[in-house]
Amino acid sequence: MNRNLESALCGVLSLLFTAFAAAQSSYQVIQVSNPGTIAGTVKWSGPQPHVPAMLINKDQAICDPDSHKVRDLERLVIGADGGVANTVVFLSDITEGKAMDLPEQRRSLDQKQCRYEPHILLVPAGGPISIKSSDATLHTVHMDGAATYNLPFPFINQTVSRVMPTPGMVNVRCNGGHTWMNAEVLVVPHPYYAVTDAAGKFELKDVPPGEYELVAWHEGWSLLRQEASFDVLTEHKVQRPVFSEPRIWKRRVKVDEGGNTVVNFVLSEK
Predict the structure, then answer these.
(1) Angle, vertex CA 35, rays to CA 30 and CA 39, nearest 5
(2) What is the pLDDT of residues 138-160, one digit of tens each?
(3) CA separation (Å) from 230 to 25, 93, 177?
(4) β-pair type (236-243, 223-231)
(5) Three-state SS for 61?
(6) In the structure, how many helices (H) and strands (E) does the chain have?
(7) What is the CA radius of gyration of the chain?
(8) I need a surface site. Which of 18, 145, 165, 221 has the fewest CB within 10 A?
(9) How many angstroms separate the CA atoms of 19 and 3, rounded?
(10) Can you tell me the distance from the alpha carbon of 123 to that of 191, in angstroms, rounded to the nearest whole number?
(11) pTM of the model
């Protein structure tokens, strides 16, 4: 594929989540009567694609204490039973419901052994993200997309907070030469978002009765290429991974009063 066309397609598909979020900017908090629950799984079907690892070529004592030599990019995490972790499942067309109650662990980012924990974050629009580093080396968190920050972390366990003002997707990477580090922050306008666990399970609670569009969003798992970038610390060129576009699946669902709706998504390479 032509590189310009490829980049344009990735940009358009990456903006789909931003479009979903922007459409929900008028969300209102109400008292939900007789709420229901949407739960289910996201699982993989068919052969698993090869997702290449990257060489750990900097700060090996900190980034690779067990001498693995390479680091998985965590773009596609499939459990033993086929469950796909780190898939975001959300309601795309809900306009009113419960107050924001996203889990605290999805709103805080740690840099630990030169990887981001967690890999997928959910932060309320207009709310803060909390970031720290557990590593005794210099990381520089670079964000672009719905929020743009470049934050150095020269000291261990020093927490920095920044407001995420606009709904949408934020790409996170390290500008300190640890080029394999990558994560995504989804800045969201309402609380009906969930990230699948290691078994691919998700649950949305306290949903007002009604019909909705349920979306499963995955960041994409293919490594398209590596591009030359600049290490601000060593002032040398480095190779940074460029990933494929996010993937999206949609389902119409009905939530009955006090009911439990089960929805299962199946992902594949096709």
Answers:
(1) 120
(2) 999 999 999 999 999 999 999 99
(3) 37, 41, 8
(4) antiparallel
(5) helix
(6) 2, 22
(7) 19
(8) 165
(9) 24
(10) 10
(11) 0.90
